[in-house]
Design brief:
alpha/beta; Rossmann fold; 8-stranded mixed sheet; 10 helices; 45% helix; globular; binds NADP nicotinamide-adenine-dinucleotide phosphate
Length: 307
């Protein structure tokens, strides 16, 4: 059965933080959480962009409970300030949607000096979650959702380049994939530790398939991508499902149900399946490579025989 917006239900009484709430999936998630009655904190790194998004949502849902708080995940100070502001006003946090992210920019570092993708996509959210954890764990059945990506399938954690130093060559796609794997490992490990402490907090991860957002640049035309991608509204649903589905369990991973999980309505995914497929492709790829290098090695002999 399709999991659609109607499954969301009443969110009155829930307090929710959405990082990167001013754009793309974060915007759509903030919009839906507001629509269904939650108190939403739209976290944005830029005041102007945050205000614009906030006003749009308020215009659509004038009675909605939504407010803007500034948060730059590349800055330890900004994260601390955000948490202090939040704690001043709220004493519960039902859902923390760790959504903000950047993809494959040229090399740059965060205010704190980390390579920007690992810094924003993973380390910033790690620190934010840690600082908010005291309030999360005292909220009944709270959830932490980390937004990952299908890009995690193509990456691996390399401890030598995890935090890029000047001497490491920078590969922007590898750095993105690595940050998105880190989101999943963080989910799994935090879920394990929370369970070991018998807390009722759930931690899950989700991904939006391929969704047409500013992640691909504000002027992307998406001509060819239209076929394999979906709009940002549909892209936000896996994260929303992970955050509220009563049957979801800690450590699980949600994504679109279509071919290769590029698009479609959200479903639970099995991370192990991708590990098996990846191992198979690596193995198969190596066999193909050695076949062709053998051919190249004996090329002249083969040509002679064939002629
Ligand atoms: N779209 C896809 O196909 C796709 C696929 C896989 C995974 N994802 C993941 O989905 C998440 C949301 O991306 P999106 O597609 O919605 O892209 P988006 O429209 O570009 O939104 C990204 C959000 O993250 C914010 N952000 C960037 N750097 C930040 C920082 N230092 N501190 C705080 N916020 C920051 C952006 O703020 P500004 O507006 O100020 O830049 C924006 O609000 C990301 O984690 C991305 O990796 C997306």
């Amino acid at each position: 059965m399709k999991w659609i917006e109607n499954n969301i239900g009443d969110l009155k009484g829930k307090t929710i933080i959405v990082t990167g709430g001013n754009s793309g999936l974060g915007y759509e998630s903030s919009r839906l959480y507001t629509k269904y009655g939650a108190t939403v904190i739209l976290a944005s790194r830029k005041e102007s962009r945050g205000t614009k998004a906030l006003n749009q949502i308020k215009q659509e849902f004038p009675k909605g409970n939504i407010e803007l708080m500034l948060l730059d995940l590349g800055s330890k100070n900004s994260i601390e300030q955000f948490v202090a502001n939040f704690k001043q006003k709220y004493n519960q946090l039902d859902i923390l949607l760790n959504n903000a992210g950047i993809m494959a920019p040229p090399y740059e570092s965060t205010t704190d000096g980390f390579e920007s993708q690992i810094g924003v996509n993973y380390l910033g959210h790690f620190y934010l979650t840690g600082l908010l954890f005291p309030i999360i764990k005292k909220t009944k059945n709270a959830r932490i959702i980390n937004i990952s990506s299908i890009a995690h399938r193509f990456g691996q954690i390399d401890l030598n380049t995890f935090v890029y130093q000047k001497e490491n060559a920078y590969n922007k796609s590898k750095a993105y994939a690595q940050s998105k794997i880190a989101n999943i490992f963080f989910t799994k490990e935090l879920a394990r530790r929370i369970e070991a402490h018998h807390l009722d907090t759930l931690v899950l991860s989700a991904h939006p398939g391929i969704s047409r957002t500013n992640l691909f640049g504000p002027t992307s035309k998406f001509n060819l991508m239209m076929l394999i991608s979906q709009n940002q509204y549909k892209g936000c649903l896996p994260g929303i499902r992970a955050s509220i589905d009563p049957n979801a369990k800690s450590g699980e991973y949600y994504g679109p149900r279509g071919l290769f999980s590029f698009k479609g309505f959200p479903k639970k995914e099995h991370l192990k399946n991708w590990l098996i497929i990846r191992r198979f492709l690596q193995h198969f790829g190596n066999k193909v490579k050695s076949f062709f290098s053998l051919i190249l090695k004996y090329k002249s002999d083969i040509t002679t025989i064939l002629i």
